[in-house]
Amino acid sequence: MTQSSLTPVAQKFILHWGEMGTRWGINRTVAQVHALLFLSPRPVPADEISTTLAVARSNVSTSLRELQGWRIVRVVHVLGDRRDHFESIKDVWEIFRIVSEERKRREIDPTLHVLAECVQEAKSDPKGDAYTRERLETMLEFLTAMTGLFEEVIRMPTGALKGVVKLRGKVITLLGTEKKKAAG
Amino acid sequence: MTQSSLTPVAQKFILHWGEMGTRWGINRTVAQVHALLFLSPRPVPADEISTTLAVARSNVSTSLRELQGWRIVRVVHVLGDRRDHFESIKDVWEIFRIVSEERKRREIDPTLHVLAECVQEAKSDPKGDAYTRERLETMLEFLTAMTGLFEEVIRMPTGALKGVVKLRGKVITLLGTEKKKAAG
DNA sequence: CTGTATGTTCTGTATAGACAGAAACTAATG
DNA sequence: CATTAGTTTCTGTCTATACAGAACATACAG
């Protein structure tokens, strides 16, 4: 391996990122590996990750697999080196977009599905509590709306986000602005 | 206690909600208690929650405390009953707003803080990797922007969200629209 | 073909968090 | 002021997950 020590700053970030991960239901090591790759200027082989983060090689293998499953890390090869090297997507907006979409797919969508079923069942059961039914309907409506809005935001090109931030407190987000420009 | 059985629909929702919670770093029982209160047409005393969900009374107590900490559940009293009764906020948008703000405060803000420190330290250390520094800066910038946008959305009145949804795919979100209306 | 480098999967252990039940506490009632 | 209802906190156990290390698999080099 080429290098296995971290600058204090990198260390601080990686540790915090790992901590952050755990709070959002993401494995600490997975988050740390991602942080390391995100900061690295070059693709890193698994054994180097292992020594740098001081976690078992097997653990790194699993974490990399997970990250590849999220499609934010990929394998690349380096001339003259048989080992797999790994690199993270570098565009933060892209990372956010991908992770969000993935979590939506894995967690929000099933919830919407269950909720829709609940509403359906509540409607067809006349013995059921009307109040409960109404609660479920409201929740479904809200989550659907929120998901929709979120999807719009997620689809914005990176530049649009910056634009939005500039307009902050005043106005807004012409989602789809870029599309119009392209068309017109 | 008044009633301790759940309709199949309520049960389904509560179980799923608990599951959902665990995926987002929220205790299963806490989420279930919240789901129960959310569906309930009347305030519920702790021991009833305990039997309905089949969890220890102590566990319910802790969960209620947690939910009160989140400010989405509160104690109310019923005439002729010494026991505390609990009810959830019913407005889903309000629940979302409060929970989001709380999580932002607890998790995002500290991250922004650490990140800002990292950038600061990276700048002052000439030996540090320039690439790493740039990565950290980008991340900080992005998170700051995203947080800002999110705060705007969060502050929207409930009605505005519905408006946004109607415009979906076309345009967007005049954040602050309601404020203007009120002022003008 | 054999040995070595590399990577993955399996298995047992450790740990953090969830939870039940007991104990302790608080306050209302007769 | 004792008794009871109600609630919280403490303590030990259980469980799910994370993780290390070993065993296993693959493939390349000589």
Structural notes for this entry:
2 copies of one chain form a homodimer. The first copy, chain A, is mainly α and 184 residues long. Chain A is built from 8 helices and 3 strands; from the N terminus they run ααβααββαααα. A 3-stranded antiparallel β-sheet of chain A has the order 1-3-2. In chain A, helix 1 packs antiparallel against helix 2. The longest helix of chain A has 33 residues, at 92-124. The radius of gyration of chain A is 22 Å and the shape is elongated. At the A-B interface, helix 1, helix 5, helix 6 and helix 7 of A face helix 1, helix 5, helix 6 and helix 7 of B.
Any key phrases for this structure?
homodimer, 184 residues, mainly alpha, 3-stranded antiparallel β-sheet, 8 helices, 3 strands, 67% helix, elongated, disordered C terminus, DNA-binding
Quick gist of this model?
Two copies of one chain form a homodimer. Chain A is mainly alpha-helical and 184 residues long. Helices cover 67% and strands 7% of the residues of chain A.
Determine the structural class of chain A based on helices, strands and strand pairing. Answer: mainly alpha
**In whole angstroms, how far apart are the ends of chain A?**
53 Å
Radius of gyration of chain A: 22 Å
As an assembly, this protein is homodimer
Low-confidence stretches of chain A: 169-184
Describe how the helices and strands are arranged.
The structure is a homodimer of 184-residue chains.
Chain A: H1 8-23, H2 28-39, E1 44-45, H3 46-53, H4 57-69, E2 73-77, E3 84-88, H5 92-124, H6 130-155, H7 158-166, H8 177-183
Antiparallel strand pairs in A: 1-3, 2-3
Chain A binds a DNA duplex (30 and 30 nucleotides) through residues 27-29, 45-47, 55-59, 61-62, 65, 82-84.
